[in-house]
Specification:
394 residues, alpha/beta, 8-stranded parallel beta barrel, homodimer, TIM Barrel, 16 helices
Chain lengths: 394, 394
């Protein structure tokens, strides 16, 4: 019995934007959709039933963090991440590579991916060889080694529905020759990851391939050809996406033009509202980013334009203009927070340093992302994507 | 129409332990019961619907904190604390005095009440006069003045069902003459509080009286006579309860012997399981304490003996013995946390510094307190309180 399938259910006229259903042993994912980040196996500050109640369908855990704490054996003995974390729906784990390399190379990858606050951490990457990467644990400084094989073995123990092969994450500032060499090593690592995946095959899991190649079209083509040729269930767009939003949209669009279309495609680490709009237009199925839940903990609520401040996609409830604002974040939002609380109350919670404020905004931002993805799917299904896209592109 | 009433519904044989119903405009409280602390108008790290789901019936807010942030006007313009905080059930506010005086006198009151970590704060109490207390705001150092009248006016704006009169909270180390003088001033302040209460009367609120007198029986008698003689709806036991658990039980029992029995009685700031058992035995209706929710955030789960560590009433899930403990905190507990998560997962969350751990333990500890109070009420109703009391006294 095959518990996994991918079926396109609607297309936007002549474009690549589409709706699809990804079937997994833990339920279905309607795409386009957003994956929420449960780095250590928890959505920070919230419970999984609160996230489920927003309509979220898909959650990821980070292999790097879960490997070091609590360790894959503990998760395996629970029967996998779903049993461990209480999230009953589909899950994905990454390879662990992104954290190791971004910590190692420093701020550049973080900058591109919008994860600036990791750049302050000490550089813990020691050495990359053909075998894999040596680094020090951020917890206790222990010497660790991650190879493609080990990453797959760890992810098999973690037991998420979807796993990623180890790839090298190269920063934007890298020269073309270096990017090419790194990409080719990533392809060898992905092939080894696949081999390990099939050697210790678990019918309850499927593997994504990852397209590298930085901002160079010829390298992207080479990487696309590699990924297209390998027996991956799905595919992800990784690596540097450039130095500007427009360059990112161009790289993604170029990549989507050549990737096979009978597999779900994930855009790694990207989750701005406009970014998602452009990704969907290019044919991407899923997106992930810590952004919606991270900004929630810092007092920021996602909100539809034009109210969002300074062309951002959110308002900052710590701003004193909300002190006596007795309206909800969004009167049209049906989340627990908007149904029950004023901006004034939320402002108060952040002023009083009450972490309930972060929780209430996490609920709102999660629900906002769910509704944003729903509105995108509805527009595609109802054959008005072109209008929707133009309207929201602004 | 009178929205408030107090009716005893069951008594334990010849003793003072009893069940009662306190009716308020926001619903009924079954007693004996526990009041959860929402200091700034939120149960730290949780949402009010999560607390409601545990079966909690009664929540308090702290006037001192809510006065300084967001200010009573903001709460009033929401229509009161219930609308502001999203807690739809009965609420109580204190007078603000406890925080001002305990911050002022330093650690001694905190010590008695088990609130040690406040003693590290700077002493901000400047001066106590017959009029009231001058102190500095802990937020911005502003000079503030709290009088009995102002405390009532603030609490009328906050709009909780129950309010407390301003009293002076004297520490255990105070001499008898000083305790007597302070108590007499508290009586004058309580009388002024009552006068203000009736002058600006709000039919949706009722006032508690507070018994002072420290550990001195003759002073307690004098204070009881005062409280019994005044038109309070309910009564609370305040002031120093002594230097040991046994002394506290004795002071409470002595006080309860003479307080009128047609009013609900609250024991201020006390909430240990054994303390509650003794309080109920003496005839107390309600208890409050930050303990269950505070220890939750530090990794401690309330649990029935004999497993609780070192004669404590909890286990500390940060302890490495729980790393691979795949059982729930309590297999007989029906809370969200116990139904879905292992001790191993909770241990992991605290190791990984994920605040979801504190939230999950807050849910468990709140449910534990609710079940503890339910089991006490059931024992009284089913006429087996004497046995229950002996059994749990240990």
């Amino acid at each position: 019995m095959n518990n996994f399938s991918y079926n396109v259910t609607a297309r936007s006229g002549h474009g690549r934007a589409h709706c699809a259903i990804i079937e997994t042993p833990h339920g279905c994912i309607e795409t386009p959709n957003f994956i929420f980040c449960a780095t250590h196996g928890a959505i920070k500050g919230a419970t999984m039933d609160q996230i489920k109640a927003t309509g979220a369908q898909f959650v990821l855990g980070n292999t790097y963090h879960l490997w070091l704490q609590p360790g894959p054996d503990v998760v395996e003995r629970h029967g996998g991440l779903q049993r461990f974390t209480g999230w009953q729906g589909p899950m994905l784990t990454d390879s662990g590579g992104f954290q190791i390399f971004s910590l190692g190379y420093g701020g550049v990858v973080d900058e591109i991916k919008g994860k600036k606050d990791q750049s302050a951490r000490p550089h813990s990457l020691l050495k990359i060889t053909e075998d894999g990467a040596f680094f020090r644990s951020y917890i206790d400084g222990t010497l660790c080694f991650l190879s493609p094989e080990r990453s797959v073995q760890i992810q098999q123990k973690l037991g998420a529905d979807f796993i990623l092969p180890l790839d090298e994450c190269t920063p934007f500032h890298m020269k073309k020759e270096e990017t090419a060499a790194s990409m080719q090593r990533s392809h060898r690592w992905e092939a080894r990851s696949l081999q390990q995946f099939f050697t210790t095959y678990n019918a309850q899991q499927r593997m994504y391939g990852i397209v590298q190649g930085g901002v160079y079209e010829d390298l992207r083509r080479e990487s696309i050809d590699f990924v297209n040729s390998q027996p991956f269930f799905a595919q992800a767009i990784g690596g540097s996406l450039g130095g500007s939003k427009q360059q990112m949209y161009d790289v993604v669009d170029f990549t989507m033009r050549y990737l096979v279309q009978d597999r779900p495609t994930h855009l790694l680490g990207i989750g701005g509202l406009r970014d998602i709009l452009e990704g969907v237009q290019s044919g991407v199925d899923t997106f992930d980013c810590v952004h919606p839940t991270r900004i929630a903990r810092h007092g920021c609520a996602l909100i539809a334009k034009p109210e969002a401040e300074f062309a951002k996609e959110h308002i900052n409830l710590k701003n004193k203009i909300y002190r006596e604002d007795f309206s909800p974040i969004d009167p049209e939002c049906d989340c627990y927070t908007c149904r029950n609380f004023t901006r004034s109350y939320l402002h108060h919670l952040f002023k009083a340093k009450e972490s309930t404020g972060g929780l209430l905004l996490t609920i709102h931002n999660a629900r906002f992302m769910v509704r944003w993805m729903e509105s995108i799917r509805r527009a595609i299904r109802e054959d008005r994507w072109a209008t929707f896209y133009k309207q929201h592109r602004g």
